[in-house]
Amino acid sequence: MNLESLKSEIEANVPGCRLEIVSNPSLSGQHSLLLGPSRALEVALFLRDAEALRFDYCSNVTGIDWPAPTTKGKVKEMGEGFEDDAEEEEAQLTGHLEAVYHLYSMEKKHGPVILRMKTEDRVERVHLPSLTPVWRSADFQEREIFDLFGIVFDGHPDLRRILMWDEFEDHPMRRDYVEPDDYEYEPTAHDDVLRKTQQHHGGAA
Amino acid sequence: MTTLTASPFESQLLEVSMGPQHPSTHGVFRMDVALDGERVVKLKPIFGYLHRNHEKIAENETYLGSMPYTDRLDYFCSITNNWAYALAVETLAGIQVPERAEYLRVITGELTRLQNHACLVGFLMQDMGASGTPLMYAFREREKILDLFESLTGARMMCNYMRFGGCRVDLPAGWLDQAKQVVEAFPRFLDEYESLLAGNEILMARTQGVGVLSKELAINAGVTGPMLRASGVNYDLRKVDKYGIYDRFSFRVPLGDHGDVYDRYMVRLLEMRESVKILRQAMKDIPGGPIQDPKTKIRGFRPKTGEAYGRIEAPKGELGFYLISDGSPCPYRYRVRPPSLINLTILEDMCLGQNIADVVIILGSVDIVMGEVDR
Fold first, then answer.
1. B350 contact A CB<8A
2. Taking the CB of residue B189, how many other CB atoms lie within 10 A of it?
3. How far is A125 from chain B (nearest CA, A)?
4. From the DSSP assignment, how many helices (H) and strands (E) are in chain B?
5. Strand A19-22, strand B30-36: pairing
6. What's the confidence (pLDDT) of residue A80?
7. What is the pLDDT confidence band of residue B127, given thresholds at 50, 70 and 90?
8. pTM above the 0.90 mark?
9. CA distance B371 to A63
């Protein structure tokens, strides 16, 4: 299916939605649609229910963490005149989290169409609309993203941690995650673990 | 039945925590159940006991380094896990797989499906109270297939068999004849199994009309594999995507009518017969030639920047891998789409209004492996 025509079809039917094609440079050729969160639910409903599309099956839902680049190394590679670019980029880049949805149609047997949504940053504004009301299959997977990446899905019927225990803080799948050093839940602390624990509590090793 | 006068007895809901060490939960899985008498009025699955953040570990490992670890997801079906991962990497990097390797993948993959389904129907009978015999019959057959895996890959369960662009080792001498014998004997096991249990009154009473899953809900909840087809949806990735060389084989997709436990049980029995058909064709047609694409550099493998989602029809449903490469030797993002986890989404819907004893067999008919649910 042609992504350009799909994009214009969605835009014609869901006025006011923000869509952008994200091209995929790899040989897989799986390009995706970046969706603005404001009308995401309407777009999802349209994709699911439109007669010609019928994306009734949301296969895979996952999160990605894109932290702000901390070194200028990555910017330097981009080409000449990196000095100015680097300053500009660092001013605006705060990093973001992303949720990716892979949609297929069981009725029409086509797909995938890949939807992505971005949060505004990684700390405060990490809310995205939940698509679980449209596809139940997103239920556990959005909970997993909430648990491991820390995206908050507004409108999710039961947003709780799913793999980590309830008292756990932080989100282990983030790139800058540091494992806790006090090992409250580690029953047999010894060697390295014990040293870290003692350092954490300020005691002498 | 309603009564006009209030009951003289106090009646309250009883909360039961089934698991995580309950023998029927197939691993460390817990269900918090609220019961009204024996009827289930609420059920919440709780898991994560085996969580080791497989995805994070794989993101700090090279592409090849994750291959043996995929064995440990669904530890019953290591070869199909390898296949799904290899397929995702091959999609990402545009790798071609030689003819013989494709046949080897189909043969080992379908053998995996045989032993997974055989065990599932055995365990389901065990859950139902038919202790021992059906499960041991199934294990006897599984043993023969595991012996084949052992002589081919060196390991019975953790096979680590596939590589990007091919397979790790070629068939040892005489393997194909041995495998043909096992496959030819397999329908006899199925006949025996069915003659023992077909029409059994207890089996019918316990499974028919129990744990019904409607077609619409199954599709919306992303249920895949034999469970989806038992609800009457014709969606088998071997037919839809035709990945590998599945378009060359003639086989049918068994479908259920009612979406109850009985249909799920029967669909698996029928799928085994279809797998035997595929195996016969594949073992007849397998060509000679290389088993590894010579242009693919397996060690120090660095795919170009980009992303890919690859999926296969694993015995439990759609197993997918989503990979993002940033050009480095490790994947930037590595995601497993586990069929057992997503098939659990509708566990509560299937159990509501059923007896507590039925919860055990409804869970058994979902076919979960905690290594894959928790990752």
1. no
2. 18
3. 22
4. 15, 8
5. unpaired
6. 46
7. confident
8. no
9. 21
Cβ neighbours of residue A139 closer than 8 Å, sequence gap 6 or more: A132, A156, A157, A158, B221, B345
Alpha-carbon distance values, B253 to A169, B21, B152 (Å): 46, 36, 29
Beta bridge partners of residue A102, listed in sequence order = A60, A114
- Helix, strand, coil percentages (3-state) for chain A, rounded to 5, are 30, 20, 50
> SS3 of B306, please?
strand
ipTM of the complex: 0.85
Q: A62 contacts in B (CB within 8 Å)?
A: 322, 333, 335, 337
Say which DSSP state B170 is in.
P
Name residue B3's amino acid.
Answer: T
Residue of B48, B235, B345 lying closest to A136 (CB–CB): B345
Chain B residues with beta carbon closer than 8 angstroms to that of A141: 342
Test B307 with A24 for CB contact under 8 angstroms: yes
Interface of B with A in 89-148 (CB under 8 A): 91-94
Residue A179 pLDDT > 90, yes or no?
no
Alpha carbons B44 and B304: distance in angstroms, whole number: 43
| DSSP string covering B91-145 | HHHT----HHHHHHHHHHHHHHHHHHHHHHHHHHHHHHT--SHHHHHHHHHHHHH
**Each residue's pLDDT tens digit, A116-140:** 999 988 888 889 999 999 999 999 9
pLDDT at residue number B21? 79
Cis preceding-peptide flag for B294 (omega within 30 of 0): no
Contacts of A162 in chain B (CB under 8 A): 47-48
CA A189 vs CA A64, B39, B51, B53, B172: distances in Å: 32, 44, 20, 21, 47
Structural contact between residues B16 and B33, judged by C-beta atoms closer than 8 angstroms: yes
Which pLDDT score is estimated for A6?
Answer: 85
Round to whole Å and give the CA distance between A136 and B222.
7
By DSSP bridging, strand B317-325 and strand B306-314 are antiparallel
- CB half-sphere exposure, B59, CA atoms < 13 A: 22
**B203-227 tens-digit pLDDT:** 888 888 898 999 999 999 999 999 9
pLDDT at A201 over 80: no
How many residues in total does chain B contain? 375
Quick one: average pLDDT of B171-199? 89
Cβ atoms within 10 A of the Cβ of B54, count?
A: 22
SS3 for A2-35 is CHHHHHHHHHHHCCCCCEEEECCCCCCCCCEEEE
What residue of B is the nearest CA neighbor of A31?
A: B307
- What is chain A's length? 205
Give the per-residue pLDDT at A185.
58
Instruction: Output DSSP code: residue B264.
Output: H
Task: Decide: A60 and B320 in contact? Cβ < 8 Å.
Answer: yes
Query: B177-189: per-residue pLDDT in tens?
Result: 999 999 999 999 9
Residue A203, pLDDT above cutoff 70? no
Phi, psi of A57 (to 5 degrees): -125, 115
